[in-house]
Structure formats: structure tokens, C-alpha cells
Model the fold of this input.
Amino acid sequence: MEPAKFSFAHRYFSSDRRDNSQAIAVQALTDATLKGDPFMLQKEYALRSKRDVGNLFGRDFAEKLAELSTGDKWQGPLKSAYGWHVVKIFNIAAARTQPFNEVIEKVKVDWQQAQRKVANENYFTNLKAKYSIVYPEQSATTPSGTQ
Done:
């Protein structure tokens, strides 16, 4: 299963630089002249899963992003681990089941790894059966629990 993927742009408003970053982000929804603050990551993202977005911006941001629709309008604001953002969703690629011909190589590798794991387990079980572990008897003069 391939998850839904989002393509979007965002404008960032730093909570560290501004006391009123959320209010300015709200204003930015209707005022295109508010460009936002410098952001250490990208301004646009293409085909990122909710998990990818969550890794970059935080889970709450990703959850809220997934609730938005595509269009030409800025939406939000959404809170991230960095501050506030307004976002424009360009495209949402729906989740889909991948056809077998797209995943055949991964299936093959997974099968080979499973076979290797079984072979290793059998090898070590047989190897272990050839040996026995004998602990020396504890000396009567040695106090219990010390070596």
C-alpha cells in the first residue's frame, strides 16, 4: 500500500522572532505581501507522505495538513515544531495499492531475507546441538554467589 502524498507550499512565521506569529499567519491568509520568515527547510514539497511531513514539521502539522483540500488559496494557519505556517496544497495523490509488477523486486528481496533467516536459525540450532555447556561445581569453601 502506498500512502497518500501531498504537494504543497508554505509560508513560515517564527514563534521565536515574533510574539504574535499566529495572528500574523492568520493575516497572511488574505495578505499575499506577508512573505514570512526565513525557514531552514524548503518552501515547497512534492509528493510527501503524511509520515514524511510529520518527520519534518511534527505529527500535529501533518494531521492538520491531511485535512486540507487542494486549491489556489492559502489555508491554515498550522502550528509546527518551528512556529506557524500558512499552506497551499497543490496536489494530493491518493493512497493506492501498488500493482505487483511495481513491487516484485521488493517482494523478491523480502522472500530471500526470510529464507536466509530460516536457514540461519536452522544452522545455529544444529550447531548448538553439537555442544554442551558444563559449569564447574561450586567449591565448598567458596561462599555462595562469589567467584
Q: What stands out?
A: The chain has a mean pLDDT of 91. Residues 99-130 form one domain.
